[in-house]
Amino acid sequence: MPQHQEQKQLTNNQKKFNPNVAMVLSILLAGLGQIYNKRYMKGISFIILEIAFILATFDFLWLGLWGIMTLGTIPGVDHSIYLLVYGIVSLIIIAFAVTLYVFNVRDAHKQAILLNNGKQPPSFKQAIRNGYDKAFPYIMTAPGLVLLIFTVVFPLLFAVALAFTNYDLYNSPPRNLVEWIGFNNFKDLATIPIWQDTFISVFSWTIIWTLVATSFQIVVGLVLAVLVNDKRVKFKKTIRTILILPWAVPGFVSILIFAAMFNDEFGAINRDIIIPLIGGDGLPWLTDPTYTKIVLIMIQTWLGYPFVFALFSGVLQSVSSEWYEAAEVDGATRWQKFRNITLPHVLFATAPLLIIQYTTNFNNFNIIYLFNEGGPAVQGQNAGGTDILISWVYKLTFDTNNYSMAAAISLIIGLIVSIFAFFQFRRTNSFKEEGNI
């Protein structure tokens, strides 16, 4: 075929298959763009799918969108929390639908361009085969994605939504309606004295608790691992077994035992140690916040160091003895060998896990609640003297039914942990290209 005829045919195809027309048709109704591109079966499938979706979900989506905007209008009839749930589910369904709709539009636009370039539309069987090959990874991961959305994303969205409502004991459906109040919960935390004082006190103790308790367990684990790994130490296996024993006992059992031992009235610490030594009634381990905080840090060090010790012990086994021998030849002291060889090697290999230790203790509910339920009570605050943010959220939820404020504090916790973990992981060498230690 002469060249001018080929160009003429290509020009005719471009006039026949306009990508913009195909895109607009697909926006108007899913499948019209595919029919315009002469992919009739695919276009009809999209049309049937869209019509079926509209007919099957219209009533539910309308109720959900109305519910999430109003949270109900008639007390005793409309249940605000149910409507909020319906609304969030509706938004998730709409997000799925929009994703498929965007795929439909992009597909029509892309196919029109390919047809203009001279590519013939595939047969129905070939289209099915090509679609299956391309979609196979998505088909296999779809069940997991759906499960993830409704077990992780949905509860997260629900908690975030509650943070902007007035859902509490006095605004509890179905008797009363819940209302959207914007950022009032966060404003109350910053302005109302009882909320402000409590939040500052609990947040400060949470930070101190996280940094001190975690750092102690890491330091103790590192020191013990370095000592046991010393070539002059005998019976290494026996010593390692003894040092890991606290890890073998369930944490809640150890916490309850310590709570009994430090009891002010009948605990073994006061009765058998403190009173015989200094007399009096012993120390107020459970009734004075300062003493309780000290005990909590010691208990967490006891519970947390075995994991760090086992982690560091494994890493130290991989440090070549030749490095230490070369350092000795150069006249390095023990401290210099530790600072320039042992410590960088250990931190490079374990930094992500150490960061997780900090984020875990930031939300370490078990030890705070099981030891003394976050107590003792503090005048002028609605949280105990040793409550951290997560245990305070628990009390707000189950003791005072202040769900919206609990959700607001939970949102703050999530942001703090996420930001901390994000920046620390990005700055960690083990998440970058491997270089020299």
TrEMBL record:
<keyword id="KW-0813">Transport</keyword>
<feature type="transmembrane region" description="Helical">
    <location>
        <begin position="294"/>
        <end position="316"/>
    </location>
</feature>
<keyword id="KW-0472">Membrane</keyword>
<dbReference type="InterPro" id="IPR000515">
    <property type="entry name" value="MetI-like"/>
</dbReference>
<comment type="function">
    <text>Part of the ABC transporter complex MalEFGK involved in maltose/maltodextrin import. Probably responsible for the translocation of the substrate across the membrane.</text>
</comment>
<dbReference type="GO" id="GO:0015423">
    <property type="term" value="F:ABC-type maltose transporter activity"/>
</dbReference>
<feature type="domain" description="ABC transmembrane type-1">
    <location>
        <begin position="203"/>
        <end position="424"/>
    </location>
</feature>
<keyword id="KW-1003">Cell membrane</keyword>
<keyword id="KW-0762">Sugar transport</keyword>
<feature type="transmembrane region" description="Helical">
    <location>
        <begin position="135"/>
        <end position="164"/>
    </location>
</feature>
<feature type="transmembrane region" description="Helical">
    <location>
        <begin position="207"/>
        <end position="229"/>
    </location>
</feature>
<feature type="transmembrane region" description="Helical">
    <location>
        <begin position="241"/>
        <end position="262"/>
    </location>
</feature>
<feature type="transmembrane region" description="Helical">
    <location>
        <begin position="341"/>
        <end position="360"/>
    </location>
</feature>
<dbReference type="InterPro" id="IPR035906">
    <property type="entry name" value="MetI-like_sf"/>
</dbReference>
<feature type="transmembrane region" description="Helical">
    <location>
        <begin position="20"/>
        <end position="37"/>
    </location>
</feature>
<feature type="transmembrane region" description="Helical">
    <location>
        <begin position="403"/>
        <end position="423"/>
    </location>
</feature>
<dbReference type="GO" id="GO:1990060">
    <property type="term" value="C:maltose transport complex"/>
</dbReference>
<feature type="transmembrane region" description="Helical">
    <location>
        <begin position="81"/>
        <end position="103"/>
    </location>
</feature>
<dbReference type="GO" id="GO:0042956">
    <property type="term" value="P:maltodextrin transmembrane transport"/>
</dbReference>
<protein>
    <recommendedName>
        <fullName>Maltose/maltodextrin transport system permease protein</fullName>
    </recommendedName>
</protein>
<comment type="similarity">
    <text>Belongs to the binding-protein-dependent transport system permease family. MalFG subfamily.</text>
</comment>
<feature type="transmembrane region" description="Helical">
    <location>
        <begin position="44"/>
        <end position="69"/>
    </location>
</feature>
<keyword id="KW-0812">Transmembrane</keyword>
<dbReference type="Pfam" id="PF00528">
    <property type="entry name" value="BPD_transp_1"/>
</dbReference>
<dbReference type="InterPro" id="IPR035277">
    <property type="entry name" value="MalF_N"/>
</dbReference>
<keyword id="KW-1133">Transmembrane helix</keyword>
